[in-house]
Specification:
Elements: E1 4-10, H1 17-31, E2 39-46, H2 52-62, E3 66-71, H3 76-86, E4 91-94, H4 102-114, E5 119-123, E6 130-131, H5 135-152, E7 163-166, H6 167-174, H7 184-194, E8 199-203, E9 205-206, H8 215-240
Parallel strand pairs: 1-2, 1-4, 2-3, 5-8, 6-9
Antiparallel strand pairs: 4-7, 5-7
Helix pairs in contact: 7-8
């Protein structure tokens, strides 16, 4: 019986997917041995133009707990949404192939099992966190979070990266999201706050990041922020009616 679903979206990661999954498998065996027969790794390949999909399918032959699903077009948000919806576990954890921290998985599971918490977020912006990314990346993360605080009154310090959810708490909110790009998980957390889900942040360590260009992401990010603002207002009005 699956109790934990690890969701791993991948796009054009043929150079590292096998190496990273092997490293993840080793860490799971060393630090979460009691969960090995109760977990699945859902690799969501979305529109890769290299051989990421075939490599991912090859991994299912090596590891029985891995399953792969495929989307025709690149879409980080759709990949996350697909993984969360098809995950069989009571707990759903979003990983990033560039930074998956086994200690976060271990601590998040303990929190979800023992505390009245619906979502655990690995925050790069907490004082105790160790963020070794380039200065520009760190600055953008902090500025984006400041934007969310000012315009959406978001109480947290980070909306990207690893997250753990109680499935029953988060699934009803997924259908309320309107974005399908890189801000899907940001919108999901904003809705979670609106619907008063309990969110807890814990420190994380990060040394690497995606190589996707920052400039190319500005325009779609702005468009998605406008969509999110309209959507949040919509659900705020609906809430006031009840």
């Amino acid at each position: 019986m699956v109790k934990l679903s690890l969701i791993l979206p991948v796009y054009n990661e043929s150079k590292i997917i096998e190496e990273e999954v092997l490293a993840l498998d080793k860490s799971l065996k060393e630090k979460l041995p009691n969960w090995l027969d109760k977990l699945e790794l859902v690799i969501v390949e979305n529109g890769s133009t290299d051989n990421t999909l075939s490599l991912a399918c090859g991994l299912t032959k090596k590891f029985s707990y891995i399953r792969v699903t495929h989307l025709d077009k690149p879409s980080y948000g759709k990949a996350l949404k697909e993984g969360l919806l098809i995950g069989k576990g009571d707990y759903l954890i979003i990983l990033n192939i560039h930074f998956h921290n086994i200690e976060f998985i271990k601590e998040a599971l303990k929190i979800l099992e023992e505390e009245k918490v619906d979502i655990v977020v690995a925050s790069k912006n907490l004082r105790e966190s160790k963020d070794e990314r380039p200065f520009l990346r760190k600055a953008i993360t902090k500025l984006f979070n400041l934007f969310l605080k000012i315009f959406f009154k978001y109480k947290g310090t980070d909306t990207h990266g690893m997250k753990a959810f109680k499935k029953d708490s988060i699934i009803p909110l997924i259908s309320k999201c309107v974005t399908e790009g890189e801000l899907f998980d940001t919108e999901l957390l904003l809705l979670a706050q609106l619907y008063k889900l309990q969110i807890k942040e814990i420190p994380t360590n990060i040394a690497r990041t995606s190589s996707r260009g920052i400039i190319k992401r500005i325009k779609p990010t702005l468009k998605d922020l406008i969509k999110i603002q309209k959507n949040i207002r919509k659900w705020q009005k609906i809430q006031k009616q009840f």
